Amino acid sequence: MCYFKFYIVILQYRYIAMGITKTAHFTDQQNELAILAKAIGHPARIAIIEHLIKVGSCICGDIVNELPLAQPTVSQHLKELKNAGLIKGNFEGNAICYCLNEEGFNKISSFFQHLNHYFENQKKQCC
């Protein structure tokens, strides 16, 4: 049993150390964009974002009814989106009300605008 716990600690250390060294070689902007991209990399999170766009305002508690997922799963996806800075969540009574965070989406939009500019200028120069 002791050997097993030691092995788990070693694996956790390797994972943490690898994560730190891998991201340390990139700029803060690159790391931040990667976090944002990862946050929108799940269909449930895209569905949550689309629902927030459709509603057009902050929503409190009715997101669970819009997705074919259990409440704890939806809560986890909301947490990931909030941690990435793509949504905001504020307590109103016993519920948390969520809305889109414009700042997070501006960062994603800026990256894609740079890509679009690149493709517009490189059409004739690319293979």
From TrEMBL:
Gene3D superfamilies: Winged helix-like DNA-binding domain superfamily/Winged helix DNA-binding domain. One of its GO terms (molecular function) is DNA-binding transcription factor activity. Keywords: DNA-binding, Transcription, Transcription regulation. It comes from the Bacteria. The keyword Transcription applies. Residues 25-123 form the HTH arsR-type domain. The keyword Transcription regulation applies. This is ArsR family transcriptional regulator.
